[in-house]
Amino acid sequence: MSTCPESYTCSDEGLLLPIVSEASWPIGARATVYLIGLLWSFMAIAIIADIFMSAISTITSHTQEVKIPDDSESGYKTIEVLRWNGTVANLTLMALGSSAPEILLSIIEIVFNDFKSGELGPSTVVGSAAFNLMVICGVCVIGIPSSETRRIKKLKVFAITAVFSVLAYVWLIIILMVNTPDFVDLWEAVVTLFMFPILVILAYILDKNYFGSASVDDETGLEVGGEDNLLSQEHADKQVIVEMLRRLKSNPDADEKEVARLTAHLMEQNQHHNRAWYRINAIRTLTGGTRLTTPLTDKSNELLETLLVAEEAGGDPDFIHLSEGGKKAIVEFESPSTAVIEKEGRVKINVIRHGNLDRRVLFRIETIDGTAEATSDYKPLKKTMVFEPKETLLSFDIEIIDDNTWEPDEVFFIRMTIEPEQQAVLGKHPVTQVTILNDDEPGTIQFANPSFLFKESVGCAQVKVERINGCDGRIVAKWKTKDITAVGGRDYENTSGEIVFEHGELTKMIEINIKDDLEFEKDENFEVDLVEVDGGAKLGKLKRCVVTIVNDDEFAGFVDRIADLTNANLDALRLGKQTWAKQFEEALNVNGGDLETATAFSYLLHFMTFGFKSFFALIPPPTIWGGWLCFFVSLLCIGLITAIVADLANIFGCLIGLESEVTAITFVALGTSLPDLFASKTAATMEKYADSAIGNVTGSNSVNVFLGLGFAWVVAAIYWTSKGVSFEVPAGSLGFSVAIFTVCAIVTLILIVVRRVVGVFGNAELGGPKTPKLISGFFMIFLWLVYVLLASLQTYGYIEGF
């Protein structure tokens, strides 16, 4: 029989806790236990929120087929688009997913407190909003590399959610401190709740541009506001794999498994992801779960370094854009280099467009000095050019100045740029080099490259030889081949010969017949040497080159195997594809079973969360009933965990003498918002725009008030109105906290706007020059500290008048 007294210190602060008598426990021990329990429960909330967001991602990823006109025989083509508009999804299910703990905490506190207003729920809503807006935005501003910037793309949607995020808290001040001080009438609660659908409708209208000139996507006929609904590529592009293998040819560790891992990693890094993806990935990183990006092993990291070295050594820039598929046009110079004889007076440059040909694409070209100088060697050019739909080739001329004095060959460059809003990317040749050749010297003869690669079935290998530093007169160059691992007469025709450069000619090809024996062989190579030139010309540095013959069947099979492994890696990352068995497998294993990349910290996190993972694996997977069953079961579990969090926070605060309002804006707000911080930081660095990083913060802050407080207050107001009295919500500390937050929020939003329009900040919400970036980012975080400090001081009576 229990002998515990009916009450003891802080025993009446919880709804469910304590479950055993703690009367004999020291206060310090109890506080420690409750603190550990509170922090541990935040991890439980994070894990169940991961499952909840997976269900939401599955629901919002449902597709429908849309027929659009094209030039085919049928007159149309069928594409798949997402049923959910991106903005509506972000403000409804996505916002609910990220804010569910705060919203449910407010509702549960009122329902289980005899429909009386509590301190923890409303203060957590305000505290989380402060952390989200000031700290998350500040971290995202600082976290962008100094040479980069991120701008909000859907500016109209961000503007309306920003206005409503301030309006929501101004409305709280009005009803709590002005209109009906310390009470909330039923109509006020209803208005608070109905601001939520009003926000969603207005944001949708602005997203679709219904009040402006609708911008239509040339490819799909869909309005630009809906282009995010188009499905992204989910399969490996063999062209990307071949390009990677070309760059990795000098690395002997480029086995197919590691190349596939690296390919999947790069493709996933360069895909656009929604808010749910970033939040789920952040939670899984914090809990040692299955990450949504393919982690790199030591070997694949070495391969990545090889790629970066190849990039710095002059490789084709930004080749991973090839993984974006056919949705965007690819614009580039036809050739990476062009030569012109000085006396010709002008050089013609070609620009090509491939990929998507249905859009109108604007791009800019600009000349840049090399050893050749503008105005003295050539006339500079800076202009905007336009590819009209279906147009694939454009040309322009640059005037060359003939000064009638001998000079060595000189070069200048032409750079191409494309604005981010254009539905196009730069191809392999965004810069071309123009060489101005002196026409009074016979020149220097050399190979174009130190090595050449040909398939065994090519038939005839053409090895390029260049003439530089002059092109006067007729030149004859003699060449011969030399065996290395390839055998002359069996693998290629062991020949020698000569090539003739007529006056003014700059390039010639040495043709060597390659024999295909239709048998599997390893790669083989032989050497080609330039041995002699006449006519006063000289041999250059590259007078030898190596020709490598690769077996076609083996190479194609190698690429196919990498593509299959890459697709398997990508499929493993896709949300909404889990079965119950897969859920338990991932829950019971660190990193979801990827032990190769697991660290000691991963094992620690997995050990700490093993129980929660195992229990929550019982929740139906998102594959059942389109994700809705998982949605409601997860929501129920979040409610249960949130009730426990409320008890832990109240009792812990009581034991250490911390007021509930202060506990809410510090411990609880931070615990529920940390996954959002990591998600936004990752989105800021990975995405091209700032929408996924900070664009959702203002929307979530509004939804917290409209649903978290609005729904709970409507329920309580109906209850008390039925009894003939008004619902009492003492303003007190809550009113002061809301007022301080509103001021800090307005200052933060003004700073974000200033960053976008003022050049010293880089004309962008995130990133920019280092010093302005650090000043503005830390100032936002400082505003949060000011809010916490002032709200805490008022709660303890150091600030009077509220």
From TrEMBL:
It comes from the Eukaryota. Gene3D superfamilies: 2.60.40.2030, NCX, central ion-binding region. It is a multi-pass membrane protein. One of its GO terms (cellular component) is sarcolemma. It catalyses: Ca(2+)(in) + 3 Na(+)(out) = Ca(2+)(out) + 3 Na(+)(in). Its main location: membrane. The chain crosses the membrane at residues 31-52, 91-112, 124-145, 157-180, 186-206, 600-619, 625-646, 703-722, 734-754, 774-799. GO terms for molecular function: calcium:sodium antiporter activity; calmodulin binding; metal ion binding. One of its GO terms (biological process) is cell communication. InterPro entries: CaCA, CalX-like_sf, Calx_beta, Na_Ca_Ex, Na_Ca_Ex_C-exten, NaCa_Exmemb, NCX_ion-bd_dom_sf. Residues 318-417, 432-531 form the Calx-beta domain. It is found in: Cell membrane. Keywords: Antiport, Calcium, Calcium transport, Calmodulin-binding, Cell membrane, Glycoprotein, Ion transport, Membrane, Metal-binding, Repeat, Signal, Sodium, Sodium transport, Transmembrane, Transmembrane helix, Transport. Belongs to the Ca(2+):cation antiporter (CaCA) (TC 2.A.19) family. SLC8 subfamily. PANTHER family: CALX-BETA DOMAIN-CONTAINING PROTEIN, SODIUM/CALCIUM EXCHANGER. This is Sodium/calcium exchanger 3-like isoform X3. It comes from Crassostrea virginica. The lineage of its organism: Eukaryota, Metazoa, Spiralia, Lophotrochozoa, Mollusca. The gene is LOC111121830.
